[in-house]
Amino acid sequence: MKNVAVILSGCGFLDGAEVTEAISTLVAIGQRGAAYQCFAPNKEAAETNHLTQRPTGRNRNVLEEAARIARGEIRPLEELHARDFDALAFPGGYGAALHLCDFAQKGSGGAIDPHVLRIVKEFHEGRKPIAAICIAPAIIALAFGEKGVNVTIGNDQGTASEVEKTGAKHSHCAVEQFVVDAANRVITTPAYMYGTAKPHQIFEGVSGAIGELLKMA
């Protein structure tokens, strides 16, 4: 049975992992007879009220928040090693650009969380495939832009331009589709980079990307 490591960045699209994208990822893995283990960084982060879409002035623990999605079956990033898994997946949500890297603040000049950077390098060096959803392809661009990795964030030209400044290539992609970089073993899909997309469209794109991930694994 293939085993996928899934990295979450909290719970809630404005300050953590996008819930529909995360659940779509887990369902798609299970539908194909594979197993998964969720991970998240164990650190504090600013909370956003998802009703008003404004900061609350409070902090929440990213690992504890992600545990809401994983039903408590989650481990800190420090425990994730590529040798234990066949593939890696990053659901999106703004938390991916806030807590897993600082692309949200610094764009192409940003840096990746040290644990996340170690992990993506381990998978890449082991020729184990990586899937990234929504804004999470920014992590891949920051990590492997110098290799000319091909990713998508949909059709948002401003974000695409910033991604390309890392050296990465960007491909426009519909919400139900995905982009494959076979040479770098990376699969990306835009999901809620299309803000008006419906959950069934998100699932279609994520499911296709995860299917390709497992074929590569």
Briefly, what is this?
With 217 residues, this protein is an alpha/beta fold. Helix content is 35%, strand content 22%.
Layout of strands and helices, then pairs:
Layout: E1 3-7, H1 19-31, E2 35-40, E3 44-49, E4 54-61, H2 62-69, E5 74-76, E6 87-90, H3 94-98, H4 103-106, H5 114-125, E7 130-133, H6 137-144, E8 150-151, H7 157-164, E9 169-170, E10 179-181, E11 186-189, H8 199-216
Parallel strand pairs: 1-2, 1-6, 2-5, 6-7, 7-11, 8-9
Antiparallel strand pairs: 3-4, 10-11
Helix pairs in contact: 1-8
Description:
There is one protein chain. This protein is an alpha/beta fold and 217 residues long. Helix content is 35%, strand content 22%. It has one domain: Rossmann fold (3-Layer(aba) Sandwich). The protein contains eight helices and eleven strands. The strands form three sheets. Strands 5-2-1-6-7-11-10 form a seven-stranded mixed β-sheet, with helices on both faces. A two-stranded antiparallel sheet has the order 3-4. It is globular, with a radius of gyration of 15 Å. The chain starts with a strand and ends with a helix.
List keywords for this structure.
217 residues, alpha/beta, Rossmann fold, seven-stranded mixed beta sheet, two-stranded antiparallel sheet, 11 strands, 22% strand
